[in-house]
Description:
This protein has about 500 residues and is mainly alpha-helical. It is about 50% helix and about 10% strand.
Amino acid sequence: MSDMDVDDFDSDVEFSDPEVYDSDGDDNELGLSTSIEIRRPPSFEALDEAVLLSSTNALLQEVSDILSMPRPTALILMRQYNWNKEKLINAYTENKEKVLAAAHASETLEKKPKSKKPKYVCPICEDTNLGTATYALSCGHRFCRDCWGYYLSNALNEAPKVVTTTHCMSPKCLLHVHDAAWCELLPTSESKDRYHQFLNICTITDNPLLKYCPAPGCTKVMRVDVRERTRAVKCKCGFDWCFSCHDSDIGDHMPATCKQVADWRERETSESENIKWLIANTKQCPKCRRPIEKNGGCMHMTCNKSSGGCGFEFCWLCRGDWKEHGTATGGYYNCNKYSASEAANEDQKSESIKTELEYYKFYYHRYDSHKQASKVADDQRRKALERGKELVENLRVRSTDVEFLVAATDQLTRNRRVLRWSYVFAYCLKTGTAEKNLLEFLQEQLEKFTDALSKQYERKTDDIPDIDTFNAWKGNVINLIRVTDSFFTKFIEGVQKGLLN
Length: 501
């Protein structure tokens, strides 16, 4: 079994409907569908951190009771088995020594000193201490409590992951410092609070079925029931995001795949594009190999010494010495040597790169335009309530009469996000295929109505002086939301079900 059982969590937590993606709220005067079938796998749920940690603690206690082991040991083993209770229990029942050795854990938490009276020399500070002033994990490597406290406190200056990777202070010992030791040996309440904060973070981040919502300011934890999920999830804060990519800037990148997004972003930020531009728009001096850009019509080129060149004069076409050029070779503005020269192959490569760059530039321009428009739509959504209040005060309309403003911005945000990533998806499709032609048709329709809705929504409040104008404007916006939502649904269904199916 590779996934955590549903029963491992609180029974009052409900899963999302396995067949639909909730598209915001109940049916209302807009007449929009409350769900859009896009065949998302079940199930995902946004939970409060406190609720999730409570469920996790109950699960740890259950494992501890079933396997008759201390709870701190159960915590180490559950991490080792990616929080898969069934898999751990089966493996532990079959060969507990092997499981404990692989996890660098022990059923015994502490090795007590033989007596309180004997004195021990701490291998680190070399001070002599009574047995009660020392501590040893089950491995028996004993150190004074002051050195333990300093060691663990200093470890907490690192990232939260340290609470799962810190081991015994003995150089060659790999036994993990368990939860009980952390709590007992940390010297101050502040360090203990920091430890518990790190522990809570790791309890969530180490579980492949859990991730914090990446939306700025959101503290919800998303739980899914499928490891390595690539479909998007929707948080209670309203943010849609890819569980695999887990990036606030990317969000839900449907219809592009995770690999397409990764490749695109690498190219987007790579300096290699500058190199490709040089290859496409410059040629190297045949003598000193310095790149030279042609800025005139004449084929007579000089590698200028004033700009760091060598002074060599050559033909732009064949890169041959200009001294060899004259009427015999076609004159100063032609070079019949070119077709037989190596320069022809170089130029063919440059033209190929130019064509590819133009292709990339076409899709990047549209991708970036919708990316910027998405930021505007997000800002509009935040301000929609304020704009609604202004209309209520100025025109004396009801608060329910301006709810369409939020619905419009929600629709624009969804559309812009999908259109943004659709250009990455289109970039990867082969030109001229039926699949790409259909995608471009769907893009065109969605873009047309998205722009129409955006233009209608952005009508200035000062241009709505009376209730009649308001009602006419409201009707236009609501109608465009309906139409746009329809094309949005068709676009999603077309991509998710296979464009040619």
